[in-house]
Amino acid sequence: MVVGSGYLGGRIGARIRELGGRAVLCSRRPPTARSSTGMDWRELDVRDPRACQDAVRAVAPDAVIAVHGPSDITWCERHPEEAMAAHGAGSANLAAAVGRLPVLLISTDNVFAGTRHSYSESDEVAPANAYGRAKLAAERALLETGRALVLRVSLVYGWDPDGHRPNYFTTCVRRLRAGLPVEAPADHWNTPVLVDDVAAWSTELLRTRRTGVLHLAGPERLSRYAWAGRIARGLGLDAGLVRPVDKAGTAYACRPRNACLHSEQASGLPELAGLWPLDVDEGTRRLAGPALAPERFPTVPAPRSVEE
Prior knowledge:
Layout: E1 2-3, H1 7-18, E2 24-27, E3 40-43, H2 49-59, E4 64-66, H3 73-78, H4 80-97, E5 103-108, H5 130-143, E6 148-153, E7 156-157, H6 168-177, E8 182-185, E9 189-190, E10 193-194, H7 195-207, E11 212-216, E12 222-223, H8 224-234, E13 242-245, E14 258-259, H9 280-292
Parallel strand pairs: 1-2, 1-4, 2-3, 4-5, 5-6, 6-11, 7-10, 8-13, 9-14
Antiparallel strand pairs: 9-12
Helix pairs in contact: 1-7, 2-4, 4-5, 8-9
Pfam families: RmlD_sub_bind (PF04321)
Domain RmlD-like substrate binding: 11-266
Region (Disordered): 289-308
């Protein structure tokens, strides 16, 4: 049972199917990602405790992956109560509904202050914004069950032309293909991780019933500006369209300066052998075909301040 049917939830569901399993996506709205095509879906509002109980009873899963709630960090900063209701209270409702089922929660680097270059599992949490506070509440609600694994991920990217809020990679590619400038913060740092790597880790970790907290991030610490330039060069597009700006004047102003993670534990986990995350250049090469192909429908260029 995958709670959340956005780009990441859909890709996790697709990975489960590729491995011969069955995934049911549960969310307020039907999935739009192409990876979710043909997948079972059930309507679910996690803010409703009875609906959570009914969904678990109807789906009868052997495990739950929670990747629900608004991920637009700027929106969450403007609507902190709604963010907490979806992430914090929603996860508490799931915790009460799942009984003894194992649960994996996809969490975020925004649970940290961002004053250090990078954060490991043992570092002290200090949320940088409303989104981070809501996700930390979700972590605690599920970890209290004793059967949950929290997988904190850094900035997830992929080719997502169908999403209502495309990720950073998709938005950069669209603007560059259209010959439009990309204004990218040079003082906001991430460790980007490919969506397929997150899906692969999620399914393997859930299969082993591991619990606790684990970090997943790409192997490089990059500013948004440097990364946008790498995307342009990797796809043969005009890197001169990428222009550095200060984070403070963009939609990223409420985010930690260093939204970067690393893991003290992952190298010792045998189930992750052979699943090490790709760097952004290899990730771009893998995405180049669909990213450079004509889209099915005309698209409106994204605003200059792109979101995740």
